[in-house]
Design a protein that fits this description.
The structure is a homopentamer. Chain A is α/β, with parallel strands linked by helices. Chain A is built from 6 helices and 13 strands. Chain A has a 9-stranded mixed β-sheet, with helices on both faces. Chain A has a two-stranded antiparallel ribbon with strand order 5-6.
Chain lengths: ~250, ~250, ~250, ~250, ~250
């Protein structure tokens, strides 16, 4: 019984050639804290050499096209790996919370039309710790069990943004969903957190997805941050010597 | 005779399996002052072991999923106790007054389709008193009579927010409704006020709903507030000794 | 010939049992300056013991229910006195100018469907004078003539708000309308101004509508204001004696 | 070929009895700088004793009714002089630029349904000069030729507001239109600029439209401004005597 | 497979007589940084003596008509050179990013209905360099090859605004598109950047489009800026002599 109608009039999924996967798993990688969702999806698409099969568009997305090797791509794209019945939705743009509902509704409606067996929205979770654990929340205990050796259960609290909307719609539509949250410390891109999430996805999907590139990026970023920290410390020491010397920014 | 149409296009009630209650009573627990509505509904659902039968969703709700034991739930849910012909709508999120009208209209339309015999929106009412009385307002004297020994009549004034909208829609639709308002002192969660409201509901529904857990929570909160008050008093005495020491906030 | 369509999608008049008046007069009492419209309508409904036959509702009204003797009423209601072919629309809430157009359109469409013979929107008009005259403006000289011994014609200027919208819609629909404006001095409720307007309505409708209660209220308010003025004057004298004593507000 | 649809859902022209003019000229007088459009239309309607045949209404107009001799009129009205196949649209209210598009579209759709031979939107144009020239811009050289002895061509630049929207819609609909702009110096009502525009309209329409009243008003306004200027000058001389005396505003 | 609908309800292309080009190339010249798109389109329309065949209109465009030789034109127009199967969309107004999506969608839907073989949105790209290179981005390597000798590939990054939306829609609709970006230094009109873009278009279209006029304009602008720079330098020298002399703006 459904009272009333709340159509998702602002968001379109356009997949012209159709989907060949049977009961696919759909992973959603939208950028959030630590850009975890975007990095995870980008790396998986690249490692599995997934094929772009469509785009998601909306009047409410910012009017921006993204370039790779001079080729323009819509900023939110749908990729498929038909051998593994695996679909990835990858967003290169931050999306206003105002349309999280519409994206969630559109994605889950589409997932239902494909008889998807699982949705995996990826998010980041900020803590004060050095660790890079992966947390999980799900629509049911069965989905939590799938990752019980690799991820900690996020027992209580809430998940907001697009991952939250996807979980809500999954709950309401009785569609299995598993949200994986990469532990990170702040808003800067965190390839190491993304690598840890990918490990959980690899295990879950029984796939081998290399995170080598992400770990190298993380090492590089950390080395640079370390150098910068030393310079700042040095600069601070210098500063104390000259009273007129001031550092900005 | 109805001139014009004001459909409730922003709010959906989704109850897939249908409702088995006959002429149910529907209690609406949305958070407001003292979180009375939310606490009342949560406790009733828990004590009566009510079964979730659906959700309410809206593009205008914040995009957030709530977690209990790692399981994600939509933030506004519908529960049923078919033995007692009792339905509870429970919201874990604050809702913008802008959609109070739509929620009221959707809930009352749905209540009519179920031949509900009574709606009981729960609210809080802030006073300066230590007491925790329960106040009542209704669409008719008959409903006020149902609780005349347990609740004071809120003779004059007005009720705003979702409870107000539900009362308006009930009035217009000639559907019996009884608003119960738990007396509280401010915005902090007030389990004792909720316990008092539950006592009225128990009596009205001829049900035994324990409020033991709420009373314990209230005792605990009050003990902590008492300790805090003593510490603050101590701090204030210390303050008077040091002229430069100032406490903010 | 009508080019285009501007439906009034935001406002509903709900009158389930229908109207038994023939060619009724419809008086609209929305609160404005001096609350004149609201007080006039409340007093007429009370004195003529009019029966509530419906409500007006809108997504754009504030979500509030009003209580009389513990019973909840929708804030904008429709009353009828079938013996006198008289309908009163009474609003207990201030209404945003943004929906004045929709209310005007909905009310006049409904008035046409009832073959109403006259609409009487009530408003306040602020002047600097002590007097409590009643001013009139109308869709035609014929309507002005109906009250020419009791009300001054508001020769030039403009009327804004809901009364203005009702006059516009009446003008466009060629429906007779007579706006009565009670002279008042400011935003405080002015029962005396309302009483004067009721005298004009009584005369026009050939009805006896007592304004005794309003005059008593006005006397009481004025006595209190007089006392307050004396106190303030006293306080001001005291103030001049003590240089640090200052009164605010 | 028309791709897409942009209906004008916010603006209505209501002309119940229909129009008897054949291939009429339609003059649009909306207030703008110097109130030129409003004054021109008001004077023409008055001098030609045109009959009101309808109104234009919109949810987006301010909710205001205008009074003439105690009679309430909708603020935007349509008048006709059937002998001269002449229609005037007269607005007594300033209109938000946001609905200029909708007014332009509605008016031009209506003009097309009437097989109008010419639209004449009136506007003001602010310059620093004492002169009161009339400028013209048109959808074609043919229309500019009609007034080439009386008005200067506004060779380059742009026209914004309702007159601009009417010109755009005329251009797109291939309907002849001629915009007449009265030269004025600022925002104060300028009857002399309006009189000069009327002279051009009279010549164009081969009609005698007296501007005597406007010229007298202009003389009166200018005399008063002259007196005010002398007083201000006097005040300034006084000022120079007292160093602390300052005039604002 | 298309899930959901996102109609472009805000933007219309009106081309009454139809298009005679077969598989046309469509160049879109909307103003942006350096006004490059607008200048390119204006010059091409003028040099190829293209014929206006339509307009683009929208409720969300500013209400403004543009004048050339006293004739009023809609601000966004469609021109055709049927001999060369070439269509140019030329905008004289800045357009809010909020409707970039709708313009992109409407233009690309229309391009598809015409079986267009290529879309060429023009944009500006700001750098710190003196150079006036032309950059290219495309929906495929094939389109980049068309200009590989004349334009540098914009390898990575993003393009925002209307050109970005047109690229996104082309990507999603699998319609070939090539964005040409004229290198410029800032927001002032840059005819030299436009001339360089036109050279690339000429080469691509195998057309001779003179840029003589633009180069002369550029020389003139640069001479004036040079003079101004000298004056400012002079002024600055003067300034250093008098401590109280300050130049603003």
């Amino acid at each position: 019984m459904i009272a009333g109608t709340t159509d998702s009039e602002y968001v379109n999924i356009i997949v012209e050639e159709g989907v060949s996967s049977k009961n696919p798993v759909i992973l959603e990688g939208f950028p959030g804290i630590g850009l975890v969702g975007n990095i995870v999806a980008t790396q998986i698409v690249s490692e599995l050499k997934m094929k772009q099969i469509g785009t998601i568009e909306s009047r409410l997305f910012p009017p921006i096209t993204v370039l790779y090797d001079g080729i323009a791509y819509a900023p939110v794209r749908v990729y498929e790996d038909p051998q593994n019945d695996f679909i990835v939705i990858l967003s290169d743009i931050l999306i206003h919370p105002m349309i999280a509902y519409d994206i969630g509704k559109t994605v889950i409606n589409w997932a239902q039309s494909l008889n998807a067996r699982l949705n995996i929205p990826i998010a980041g979770i900020a803590t004060m710790r050095e660790q890079r654990s992966v947390y999980a929340a799900a629509t049911g205990a069965e989905q939590l069990n799938l990752v019980k050796d690799k991820a900690e259960t996020l027992v209580t609290g809430s998940i907001s943004g697009i991952a939250g909307s996807i979980m809500n719609e999954s709950h309401t539509s009785k569609l299995p969903a598993l949200c994986l949250l990469g532990e990170t410390q702040g808003p800067t891109p965190d390839p190491r957190a993304a690598a840890r999430v990918i490990d959980v996805v690899s295990d879950l999907m029984k796939l081998t997805i290399s995170t080598q590139k992400l770990v190298e990026e993380a090492d590089q970023i950390e080395t640079e941050l370390h150098k910068l920290a030393e310079q700042v410390q040095g600069a601070e020491q210098v500063e104390t010597k000259g009273p007129t010397q001031v550092m900005y920014g």
